[in-house]
Amino acid sequence: MSPSLGKIGIWRVATQLDAELAAEIEQLGYGTIWVGGSPPADLAVVEQLLDATREITVATGIVNIWSSPAEAVAESFHRIDAKHPGRFVLGIGAGHREMNTDYRKPYQALVDYLDVLDAAEVPKSQRVLAALGPKVLQLAHDRAAGAHPYLTTPEHTRSAREILGDALLAPEQKVVVDTDPERARATGRETVGMYLNLANYTRNLERHGYTAEDVTPPGSDRLIDALALHGTAEQIAEGIDAHLRAGADHVAVQVLGDPAPAYRALSEALQLR
């Protein structure tokens, strides 16, 4: 059974998610909860969120292949899928050279990990890959349901769609519901700035029109405005829709700041109910 993600979901680090927020997110009309922050192999947080909701899909964005062994993750997948059939999507990724001490040949490591998932009968239709560059996007097309790119723009979405064909494309988009530009940029920089020390993200942004100066920490205003959309909920909804117009099937919205009021306002602006 293939899960339905809906057009719009939310993305939050596992430690920022709980049963109460999950239940409200479902009531607000969002289609998927993406669990970030490299949740451990037992995927207990995924099970807790599914237990607290009725129909919404829960996905990992992402399980880190270096810290969560494939065999253990496969066991967790089957435990969760047996309890909540078709509502769980397993997102996996190779993380970052700067943050994983045993990082080596990430592409081959992803292939090997997928081989273990295949042997354990984790269905292709319920797994996605964190993918930015052409090679891993192609792997996402060939060996998974599709791709879950992080820290990208509609320009990347457009080029990713060309590689993925009809496979799933579900980018993440950060937002700050704040009409004060300077304050909103400061909020955006606090999170985006962390990623500008990671080469795979900066290389990808440079491939899609940003300069070395743009991606040098703490990031240019132009870059921050694209990676952390700000303004009214209605203005942000237009920016989210730009990903859909560029070819995304689904957008995972990460609110920076107080989540509940922002997700309520965005639900109304995006007409999710």
From TrEMBL:
Pfam families: Bac_luciferase. Coiled coil: none annotated. GO terms for cellular component: cytosol. GO terms for molecular function: oxidoreductase activity, acting on paired donors, with incorporation or reduction of molecular oxygen. Residues 20-250 form the Luciferase-like domain. This is LLM class F420-dependent oxidoreductase.
